[in-house]
Amino acid sequence: MEPGERRPKRIRQVLLFFVFLGGSLVCSEPWRYSVAEEMEIGSVIANVVKNIGLGVEDLVARGARVIFDDYKPYLLLDQQTGNLLLNEQLDREALCHLTEPCILHFQVLFENPLQFFRAELWVKDINDHTPAFLDKHILLKISESTAPGTSFQMDSAQDLDVGKNGVQNYTLSPNPYFHLKLQASDDGGKYPELLLDQFLDREKEPEFRLTLTALDGGSPPRSGTTLVRVLVLDINDNAPEFESPVYEVQVPENSPVDSLVVRVSATDLDAGIYGELSYSFSHVSTDIRKTFEIHPISGEIHLKALLDFELIQSYTINIQAVDGGSLSGKSAILVQVVDVNDNAPEIVMTSLTSPIPENSSPEMVVAIFSLRDQDAGDNGKMVCSIQDDLPFLLKPTFKNFYTLVTELPLDRESQAEYNIAITVTDLGTPRLKTQHNLTVTVSDVNDNAPAFSQAAYTLFLYS
Question: Any signal peptide, and if so, which residues (predicted)?
Fold first, then answer.
């Protein structure tokens, strides 16, 4: 090879996959702790020393720390006592929305020697939200010829709490014409329907004002109300019918606001006002109302806000077509959010040892770091590598954690400093790449004896 020429660098690649090493590197069974949301900061959750069976002094000596999967400091490890302390006030609804149970995964990491203990923090719900109707007034138009037993669907109340603290029951103010019937929705909740008990007579009583109350199951229960206004109309004997009971659509998550999602259509055999249809959402969540909007005349549904596959992968939108006599037809739209490669891989350094002695033993841990890509499928798969001409090696350890270890003997007299570029590339289209640069210095040890420049010296003396 001619002077000045440089050999092309070969990149060693290590596919990111989950691997469990032998021995006691990873605790097989996760610890489980629980905490009620909104508990005060500084509250003691548990003591890790009791779980591990070590002394408190080992926490500092072994570099113990707590790392959550989303890298947020929900808990703080007191290394003087071993107590896990609440580091911030938790809001279950903000963390998990309606997902139950609400589990935050984390690891207790010991650096020296390297060891992981898996753990889960279960955030328990408290009854801190009141049921609320999205509309303060519900208007129903009912024909006087409507037969007793006919049901009229009404929007359900929303409650950010889950389980028994969510909406459990509905009541209706006493009246001789209507009573409530509760129906189960697709998401496991309940929504109210108004059932007619006897024929209406518009000439006797053209309008009713009823109070609908939603109650949750807390102790004491919280409640919210809305006004149901019933207008009695003339005959309408055909309900609207949608052309499809279910519409299935796929929408890329990078679709701009106001993009057309789907156009629904229903027909009504009646003429005049009774054949005029109005489209609307039916007992949908606040998230759906914030994300989509439906045109009441055309039936077109457009995006009202940007989608994010990493937050919500699909939506089930219940819709209804209501004619001029308040008869309604029902359908549903299943929206699948399609992931695009919009998140670059992330490298999070946990620890770095520098300088390192030149007489370090092979596979000495120089750095510990973890990788994360919030995309799904190939968009979330990653390849991790360093330069090939270095005496270091990347080793996958636990979950998405890697260690950088020495592979060959070091010699400070030959090279006292190494610049290491950790490169992570995902497998999406287009491929996104992240690079993190490390500088590792080599410290000297006394491994060279003094030496003269020549074996003998000759002197001439003149007298």
Answer: 1-36
The candidate with the shortest Cα–Cα distance to 218, out of 168, 146, 263, is: 168
CA distances from 109 to 78, 338, 350, 394 (A): 14, 36, 10, 19
Please answer whether residues 120 and 68 qualify as being in contact, where contact means their C-beta atoms are separated by less than 8 angstroms: no
Distances in Å between the alpha carbon of 171 and those of 194, 215, 219, 220? 11, 8, 18, 17
What's the confidence (pLDDT) of residue 22? 38
Question: How confident is the model at residue 454, as a pLDDT?
Answer: 80
Cα separation, 121 vs 430, whole angstroms: 36
Contact 213/228 with Cβ under 8 angstroms?
A: no
Mean pLDDT of the chain: 86
* pLDDT (0 to 100) of residue 162: 84
State what percent of residues in the chain have pLDDT above 70.
92
Residue 283 bridge partners (DSSP): none
Q: Is 20 exposed, middle or buried (0-12, 13-18, 19+ CB in 10 A)?
A: exposed
Which pLDDT score, from 0 to 100, does residue 203 have?
76
Residue pair 254/308 in contact by the 8 Å Cβ criterion: no
How many Cβ atoms sit within 10 Å of the Cβ of residue 335?
23
Q: How far apart are CA 394 and CA 20, in angstroms?
A: 15
Which tokens is 276 given? Answer: 């005029």
When pLDDT is averaged across residues 320-346 and rounded to a whole number, the result is 92
